Amino acid sequence: MSDEHRQQEARSRGNLRMAGKLSVLVVVMFGFGYALVPLYDVFCEITGIGPGTVDLVAAEEQEWVADESRTVTVEFTASLNQRMPWEFRAETRTMEVHPGESHVMTYYARNLREQDMIGQAIPSVSPARAAAHLHKLECFCFVEQLFEAGQGRYMPVRFVVDPDLPEHVDRVTLAYTFFDATPAGMHAPVDVDTASTR
């Protein structure tokens, strides 16, 4: 067998091995993509991150009974994605609530740009074990928010702390981060200098 023939066979074996590896990679990537939805659901359940639309249905069907023997401190925070040129704040920093009682608090947001923008607020709850026990009955985070140039407005959040919240948890933080959800082409790209001086 000539050297050229041996080299061709070696190349053929190498090509077959590479094709096999690529096939396995395609299958793994497909499986990972297929698993992303349930993995995301688990992640949201553990961390409390997510818009909470399922939570809305479950909470509104529930008849809450207030536990007046217990008080929980709910802290509210607001932050912006680093390239989001808005003003965003919680009007109330903390609230003392009885589990099972419905409460309303308000956030304020204002678009500082000279173009219309769409924002999407992403909520999170901490500690993580409290995430399943703070129910948002009404929330600006359920839908994208269109703000015209320079527009500001107050946005309510109606919520209830589940009486089943573990007894040792006496403080819960409800945090929102606003992200730019404006479709490409609706406005010019955000100017970094403008965003950093908000």
Q: Whole-Å distance between the termini?
A: 75 Å
Strand fraction band? 25-35%
The helicity comes to 25-40%
Major β-sheet annotation? 5 strands, mixed
Overall body shape = elongated
Mean of residue pLDDT values: 80
Summarize the helix and strand pattern as letters.
HHEEEEEEEEEH
Major sheet: arrangement of strands: 3-1-9-5-7
Radius of gyration: 25 Å
By DSSP (H or I, 4+ residues per run), the number of helices equals: 3
Helical/strand content category: alpha+beta
**Residue ranges: pLDDT <50 for 5 or more in a row?**
50-58, 188-198
Strand tally is 9
Architecture overview:
By secondary structure, the protein is an alpha+beta fold. Helix content is 30%, strand content 34%. The chain has helices at residues 3-47, 53-61, 192-196; strands at residues 72-80, 86-90, 94-97, 102-111, 117-126, 134-139, 145-147, 152-161, 171-180. The strands form two sheets. The chain has a five-stranded mixed sheet with strand order 3-1-9-5-7, with no helix packed on it. The model is unreliable at 50-58 and 188-198 (pLDDT under 50).
Please name the defining characteristics of this protein.
198 residues; alpha+beta; five-stranded mixed beta sheet; 34% strand; elongated; disordered C terminus
